[in-house]
Specification:
The chain is of the alpha/beta class. Helix content is 42%, strand content 12%. It has 12 helices and 10 strands. It has helices spanning 3-15, 43-55, 71-83, 100-114, 132-144, 158-165, 191-197, 215-219, 222-231, 235-243, 258-265, 274-283, and strands at 17-19, 25-27, 31-32, 60-62, 88-93, 121-124, 151-154, 176-179, 202-205, 249-251. The chain has an 8-stranded parallel beta sheet. Strand 6 (121-124), helix 5 and strand 7 form a beta-alpha-beta unit. The longest helix is centred in the middle third of the chain and has 15 residues, at 100-114. The two termini are 32 Å apart. The relative contact order is 0.15.
Length: 296
């Protein structure tokens, strides 16, 4: 990708933002890092990929203490050394660490791994046995101390979100990160409307069905292939354009190679028509009833 193309993508991404509850604007395409940092032979390529993503406007980088038991965070540290201010940095805490001194220690270890003194967003990775109120209290304390700017949750279904929102300070939740892609639309029936009602965006992990059985069925589907051909892009770019269509979803595809990051960024240039969205709906229908939350 040349400098002109990168400038065009950056300009497009600046127009595609999602508003967090505190009115912070985050670009709708970010970068996931699941399974990155675990293979030394890929390290330099992965670092380059993250830099290319930032250069193209994909400012959000998502990681977790679980990813390689800190290996992903340590990889990202190499990127942050030069450009912390360019990054909206997200990490996640294990459920068994999500309370009391364990929460503080986990956060501080993530900060150490990342080589920074704050996280832009800190998420509870999934529900565990620690009471939610204890987790919320701990996250609010970390926020008060400046270790995190805001907090959210991941893999929370409707019942979990309702319980959270009823707690003291539970309404401070900034996002819910869940699996969401064209082949997994269950959240659209009840969870997404609930989040929208409370002004809480969705952060979509695996928006290209990474790690799932549907990936090839999505990328090879005749409707997706036809739209990709008509728009002069790859099927993955159609899937990403679809995922961020509402303005309430931040998609975080993982790409460990610069060329794949560049391809992801081009999704910001794809403008699908109502007829094209209807064709995708026909191929992959929206849910008509509550479905269990998909998790990878």
């Amino acid at each position: 990708m040349n400098e002109t193309e990168r400038t065009v993508i950056l300009a497009a991404l600046k127009q595609k933002t999602v508003t967090l509850p505190d009115q912070t604007h985050v670009r709708a395409l970010g970068q996931g890092t699941w399974r990155m940092g675990e293979d030394q032979s890929k390290r330099q390529a992965e670092i380059e990929a993250l830099h290319v993503g930032l250069d193209s406007g994909m400012e959000l980088i998502d990681t977790a203490e679980m990813y390689g038991e800190g290996a992903s965070e340590q990889l990202i540290r190499e990127v942050l050394k030069e450009r912390r201010d360019d990054v909206f940095l997200v990490s996640k805490v294990y459920p068994h660490n999500a309370g009391g001194e364990k929460l503080r220690a986990a956060c501080e270890q993530s900060l150490k791994n990342l080589g920074t003194d704050y996280l832009d967003l800190y998420l509870l990775h999934w529900r565990g046995s620690i009471p939610l109120q204890e987790t919320v209290d701990g996250l609010e304390q970390l926020k008060a101390e400046g270790k995190i700017r805001r907090w959210g949750v991941s893999n929370f279904d409707v019942k979990d979100m309702k319980e959270l929102l009823a707690l003291d300070k539970g309404d401070q939740c900034a996002v819910n990160q869940v699996l969401y892609h064209l082949g997994s639309r269950g959240i659209e029936y009840e969870l997404m409307p609930l989040l929208k009602q409370h002004g809480i965006p969705v952060m979509a992990y695996c928006p290209l069905a990474e790690g799932g059985d549907l990936r090839e069925q999505l990328l090879d589907h005749p409707t997706v292939e036809r739209l990709a051909e008509e728009h002069g892009v790859k099927p993955a770019q159609i899937l990403l354009a679809w995922a961020i269509r509402s303005g309430d979803v931040i998609a975080i595809p993982k790409a460990g190679q610069a060329k794949h990051v560049e391809e992801n960024g081009k999704a910001a240039l794809v403008e699908l028509t109502d007829e094209e969205y209807a064709a995708l709906d026909e191929a992959f229908p929206a849910p008509t009833k509550k479905e269990p939350l998909d998790i990878v």
